[in-house]
Amino acid sequence: MIVTKLNKSLTPLISTVTIDEFILASEKSFDCIFDGTSKFYPWEKPIIPDNFKIGVIVGGSGTGKSTLLKHFGSEEIPEWNNEKAIISHFENPDEAINKLMSVGLNTIPSWYKPYNVLSNGEKFRADLARKLKSNTVIDEYTSVVDRNVAKAASVALNRYINNSDITNVVISTCHFDIIDWLQPDWVINTDTGEFLDGFFLPDQKLNYKYTAQPIELGICLKTIII
């Protein structure tokens, strides 16, 4: 496994808001100074192998995962016709069956339902099945499902991608547990700024343990615990 450090972009992402009574009140309450401008220095994209099966960008909220993911493409959001069964939204019946099963959506009666009546877990897996193709990006992976659904979908997804001609699938998530289940070719940790290439080597499973990073304090409190 090769570990390299990411670089921060020298050009920040800048957002501005109007100073109003709410901001002024919070400044007074928390002894904070804010000029209406927020800056964020995103991570630069490291050198990625041209061909891989699965890559994962993982880290806490606000660490630049989604910004970094944009370097790999734009996420496609499937459109669903609620007058048709979810199985009827693929190129052909074989693709529908293979892809629905590949994401762990194996409850056959659910295949015949419209998308709008599915549970959150079923919707997540149905969307995932529609997105499955080469050079796809998936943001907020497993964010809306419990960990049992996340594990089942990830294990099935890994098996399907590695047994097919699908390549260059990049997933962004705040959940570190999916790394063991997806067994990606590389991992970017936006908490630590590390790029881990060759993450899961043949016949050698590497467990990457997450270590919380110290909070950097500026002139304004970043986190308030009551």
Number of beta-strand segments:
8
Fraction in beta strands:
5-15%
Report the average pLDDT across residues. Answer: 88
* Quaternary structure of the protein: single chain
User: How much helix, percentage-wise, in residues?
Assistant: 25-40%
Poorly predicted runs of 5 or more residues: 202-226
Strand order within the widest beta sheet? 1-8-7-4-6-5
Q: Could you give a short account of the major beta sheet?
A: 6 strands, mixed
Judged by helices, strands and strand pairing, the structural class is alpha/beta
How many alpha or pi helices? 7
Q: Span from first to last CA?
A: 41 Å
Using only C-alpha atoms, the radius of gyration works out to: 20 Å
Topology:
Blueprint: E1 2-5, E2 13-16, H1 21-30, E3 37-40, E4 54-58, H2 65-69, H3 93-102, H4 108-111, H5 120-131, E5 137-138, H6 147-162, E6 169-173, H7 178-182, E7 186-189, E8 194-197
Parallel strand pairs: 4-6, 4-7, 5-6
Antiparallel strand pairs: 1-8, 2-3, 7-8
Helix pairs in contact: 3-5
Overview of this structure, please?
With 226 residues, the chain is α/β, with parallel strands linked by helices. It folds into 2 domains: 145 residues, no CATH class; 58 residues. Strands 1-8-7-4-6-5 form a 6-stranded mixed β-sheet. A two-stranded antiparallel ribbon has the order 2-3. Strand 5, helix 6 and strand 6 form a beta-alpha-beta unit. The longest helix is centred in the C-terminal third of the chain and has 16 residues.
